[in-house]
């Protein structure tokens, strides 16, 4: 068995930090302890912030030419690649993710995303002429009107448990490329894997203070990272409830805040694509156990074929293999902790109280007495007002809903406080795309999907603020300055 990463301390201002307090990281597959980590104190987190502030204000990294920043970050990525096997083993152990998911959806996708983000950044203009009508140039005595994209400053990057590495790549690389200094704070549930970024920063000779990685058991450090006057921007991925608190904590210092929050995405099947529903439903829970903010957990189908769909989805879910993530036959592992399992049970019960039916699952899989496992669950719901259709469950629970016509399908999909992602399937691509254009959501996949450094993601409504990935994701870490340049008269 491959050993996991060995570092157990926070990386602050260019060095590793010992601590008086420790905390345990649990393996959700068997409830054993993966490792005990040195817990960063609020004082350690403040030192990371002040070091980031100092490095940014001194121009240590921000004034380095972009091509040189790119070379250093390629070296940082090279080091992470050199830790491939133990990094994947760490993600499997601390997050309970099947090895396939940790390998491909986190490690390989993260490396590819990071390198492509560098290419994208270098292809973009970061200082350009700003168009001004000729009359304004003459009247103002201007010789040039210039728009510059400059780094925001000090960035707090706060990542979730379900995608610690891919989300760290998604935040840290564009923020550093833009010239910012960054403090990375991973979820206390899955912090070990993110320490690879500290080791990589050290190996790549990133100047001290430009990137720190702090691990803690509670939230005191995270609250400091969202409220400290030395921080200019908070980039957070996680629940909408926590996102609201971050907005409140950042408000007194008017920080920039980028939030990728919860979702209750819909997958809509046009009548000519209902035979595709079983595969689409399986993708929601396979590998992630439904622990993905973009998971399309509402399956919206023609009402006259709803019973057929419920049966097809139930067959597909019954065929999923639930088990330890190290089992190569397992297609679905555990949830992250007992609270997540209890949340699933709560919403299954609430669905039934409001007229829904459990077509499959809803309990603990047979033979798995340890670990936080939940059966793949199919709910047959009477309408979209059911709690299971309105609230993000974040587990292997899908709801099947029937629509009268395509207007009704769009209404159901948009009847949500969230708007992060969506899917539309139809043999008539033009018809499916027309439906996609009407959805109030940050991304819609029509008959396919795309995860790329060049394609943005983000939410409408309570699914967040701002965008990650793509040109918009890079600009999120930059301020815009206008220069009006003329001659003294």
Automatic annotation (TrEMBL):
Top EC category: oxidoreductase
Q: Decide whether keyword Oxidoreductase is in the record.
A: yes
Show the active-site residues. Answer: 260
**Molecular function, one GO term:** aldehyde dehydrogenase (NAD+) activity
Q: Does this entry carry the keyword Transmembrane? A: no
Q: Which family does it belong to?
A: Belongs to the aldehyde dehydrogenase family.
Q: Could you read off the lineage of the organism from its UniProt record?
A: Bacteria, Bacillati, Actinomycetota, Actinomycetes, Frankiales
Q: Which key words tag this protein in UniProt?
A: Oxidoreductase
Q: Which Enzyme Commission number(s) are listed?
A: 1.2.1.3
Q: Which reaction does it catalyse?
A: an aldehyde + NAD(+) + H2O = a carboxylate + NADH + 2 H(+)
The family database entries (InterPro entries) matched by this protein are listed as: Ald_DH/histidinol_DH, Ald_DH_C, Ald_DH_CS_CYS, Ald_DH_CS_GLU, Ald_DH_N, Aldehyde_DH_dom
- PROSITE patterns noted in UniProt: ALDEHYDE_DEHYDR_CYS (PS00070), ALDEHYDE_DEHYDR_GLU (PS00687)
Matching entries from SUPFAM superfamilies are given as: ALDH-like
Q: What is this protein called?
A: aldehyde dehydrogenase (NAD(+))
Per the UniProt record, the source organism is Pseudofrankia inefficax (strain DSM 45817 / CECT 9037 / DDB 130130 / EuI1c)
- Domain named Aldehyde dehydrogenase is located at 16-482
């Amino acid at each position: 068995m491959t050993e996991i990463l060995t570092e157990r301390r926070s990386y602050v201002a260019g060095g590793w930090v010992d601590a008086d307090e420790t905390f345990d990281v649990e393996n959700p597959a068997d409830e054993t302890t993966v490792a005990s980590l040195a817990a960063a104190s609020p004082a350690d987190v403040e030192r990371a912030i002040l070091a980031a502030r100092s490095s940014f204000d001194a121009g240590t990294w921000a004034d380095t030419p972009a091509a040189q920043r790119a070379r250093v970050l390629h070296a940082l990525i090279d080091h992470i690649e050199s830790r491939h096997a133990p990094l994947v083993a760490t993600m499997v152990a601390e997050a309970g993710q099947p090895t396939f998911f940790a390998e491909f959806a986190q490690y390989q996708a993260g490396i590819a995303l990071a390198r492509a983000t560098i290419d994208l950044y270098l292809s973009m203009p970061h200082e350009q002429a700003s168009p001004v009508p000729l009359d304004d140039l003459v009247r103002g005595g201007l010789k040039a009107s210039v728009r510059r994209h400059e780094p925001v400053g000090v960035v707090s990057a706060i990542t979730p448990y379900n995608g610690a590495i891919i989300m760290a790549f998604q935040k840290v690389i564009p923020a550093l490329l833009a010239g910012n200094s960054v403090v990375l704070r991973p979820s206390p549930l899955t912090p070990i894997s993110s320490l690879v970024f500290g080791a990589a920063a050290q190996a790549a000779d990133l100047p001290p203070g430009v990137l720190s990685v702090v691990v803690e058991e509670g939230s005191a450090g995270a609250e400091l990272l969202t409220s400290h006057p030395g921080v200019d921007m908070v980039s957070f991925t996680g629940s909408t409830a926590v996102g609201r608190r971050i907005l409140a904590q950042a408000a007194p210092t008017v920080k920039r805040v980028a939030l990728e929050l919860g979702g209750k995405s819909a997958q809509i099947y046009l009548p000519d694509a209902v035979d595709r529903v079983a595969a689409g439903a399986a993708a929601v829970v396979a590998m992630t156990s439904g622990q993905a903010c973009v998971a399309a957990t509402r399956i919206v189908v023609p009402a006259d074929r709803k019973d057929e769909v419920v049966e097809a989805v139930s067959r597909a879910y019954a065929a999923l293999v639930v088990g330890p993530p190290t089992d190569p036959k397992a297609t679905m592992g555990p949830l992250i902790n007992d609270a997540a399992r209890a949340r699933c049970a709560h919403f299954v019960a609430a669905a039934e109280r409001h007229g829904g039916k459990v077509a499959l699952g809803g309990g603990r899989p047979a033979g798995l007495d340890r670990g936080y496992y939940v059966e793949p669950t199919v709910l047959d719901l009477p309408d979209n007002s059911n709690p299971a259709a309105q609230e993000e469950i974040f587990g292997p629970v899908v709801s099947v809903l029937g629509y009268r016509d395509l207007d009704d399908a769009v209404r159901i999909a948009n009847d949500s406080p969230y708007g992060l992602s969506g899917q539309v399937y139809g043999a008539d691509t033009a018809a499916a795309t027309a439906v996609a254009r009407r959805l109030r959501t940050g991304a819609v996949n029509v008959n396919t999907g795309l995860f790329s450094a060049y394609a943005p993601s983000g939410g409408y409504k309570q699914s967040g603020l701002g965008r990650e990935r793509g040109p918009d994701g890079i600009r999120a870490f930059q301020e815009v300055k206008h220069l009006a340049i003329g001659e003294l008269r």
